[in-house]
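Quality-control log, excerpt.
Job 1 of 2 completed; input and output follow.
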Amino acid sequence: MSPRVRGAVSPFMFRRWRALMCTAVGLLLLPMGPSISAGDRPAPSDAPKAPSAESQSASGQVTRTTAATDQSLQEQFIRLKSELVLLSISVTDQLGRFVTGLKSDHFTVYEDDVPQQVKFFSTDDIPISVGLILDVSGSMRSKIARLREAVRRFIEWSNPQDEFFAIAFNKQVMLLADFTDGEVLLTYLPFLRAQGRTALFDAVYEGVLKLRHARHGKRVLLVISDGQDNSSRYSYGALSRLLKESDVQIYTIGTPDPTLYNTYFEQQGIAILQQLSKLTGGRHFTVMGASLLEAVCATIARELRQQYNIGYISTNTSRDGKWRRIKIEVAREGGKKFKVHARRGYYAPVSQP
């Protein structure tokens, strides 16, 4: 059985999460009241029902149970969505392996060093919107064939309900495929050709802007590049400011030339990719051989389907538009040390004039 069939989401689970996440996820940190695009609008429901005891604990924390109805879940998020800060979190061990099986009480969330109460916790496999940012500059010429197969492997292991777009870049940024399903996107890959210089910052910038029109609330960029920008109009500073304002996770795969890995330019390229992932709560992988690209892409696809989704309502009620730092700690078991990958913070809402 293929990995896509094996990991498919049941129609019931998909309908439940589409109504839930489209209401809550992508619209939570906007400074103004939430707005819902046509693609994100929840399906109409019957008269609302009171939340069940199983769907909300005495402390007010919302949890996912099979007994909770679509209506009760939606009611809870209608009440919370204007204030809920939602985070997608990966946890790895000392060897970089993804850690599963954690519960809500394993996590402690701090905002500006103030503990926050977790109101929402889930590990459900929900559909996401993914932008593939593919380096086709001259330095990638020997890796293009492997890059195509790596993208194919990533799509095979992704949720069948995910949507994708692809941007290819050298000295220019080109939309290779608009939002579509994985099978259609794969038909565009044979057209990839490597040549020219590298406008990495421009490509990532355009990818973030493109995700503003995504159908799903959870949004990810997967960047495959050697990281050596030498042709962008946007600076790294401009890109980092945009990332701080956007609820987008960036996973990066660096593909340096092994024979030049210790040179300044190769090291600088990898450092840029690492910083993009760290800033947005994603993860970075350095691949010393193109043959390893496929395995790394499969690892990332599986991780995205097993992330922890945590939400809290900030104790800071000021609507001042200031940057708020987020820190997440995970309880250690048996002396094990875990590393948490999550967004570093967000900008607070701004009061209406």
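Job 2 of 2 completed; input and output follow.
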Amino acid sequence: MTYLEQAIKDKFVYIDEKQDLLIYQPQGKERRLSNPEERVQLQTYLNLIYEYGYPPEHLRVCEKIQIGSSTREGDILIYLDDRGLDPWIIVECKKEGVSDSIFEMAIDQGFSYAAATDAQFVWATSGDRDAVFQVIPSKINEREKNRLDRIPTYKQIKKPGSAITRRLGRWFRAPVTSDTILFSVVLLAAMFAASWLAVTFDVELRTLTGLFWQQHGMDYSWVFNGLVAISTVFSIGIGFAFMRSHQLFGNSIARKRLIYFLICLILFLPTLFIAHSMSNPNWWSRPFFNSRDYPILVYLWPYSKSFPLQFFALYSLIWLSSRRTKE
């Protein structure tokens, strides 16, 4: 029994040759059977079920894919779930005997769909030849080092906890996330360095600002706010000099001024709020500072409490910036 005969028996496809009708089940997608490209797509659909073991509920034929402001249609999209929430493989089909240039276009089209959906594999096929690739998000144009002999079977990827791991992996590999993490590391390093210097030269700092301590009720919250401001400006300077590929520093000059202003607000306001909401009313006093075995924690502990807020705000800003760039 052929795959097609088995699929008809299993009610995975319905064929009416008189009406030139082909229906993929359970999706219910109707296609023209006489289309040469559709013949290749049908055979690929059957191979995915009977050779690779993918459940029909995980397959979508002629699936709509949003790329920017336009909507395209992928030939076959394989999901890791039956609700279509976890894209896995993009399949692009061409009729047999197509030219090399058209086949290469199918590969590039598959990669563009993979970039839009976060799918991890691309399979271009014309029935008489195949090209399979693993998608490397950071090298979306790679076509040699990521070439595979065939796509993974359903059994090879159906492992406990693997879906969560893949989703987390995609999130960490996303440019928005990597940019946020990178800039956050720079911020943390700058704040730690500034705090260490403030503790090391505390006597000199208090001598320099003695008038404020005596006449204006200055305490260590003033120093803390100053350290946050200094580390913010320093981090932006580092970004401007060495992080040109970073989303925050790759915009036009006019947009940079606005973005830098927003960065300063995002980084300063949460720390200012935390500084004035410490549960210990003596936290910023000189006796409390002098009594600490590790006085640097007087600065770093409040900062660690505000850091999650900063991270989320930075992530949102970079995401909005990347959305506007695409538009």
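Post-run check on job 2. The first strand starts at residue 13 and ends at 16.
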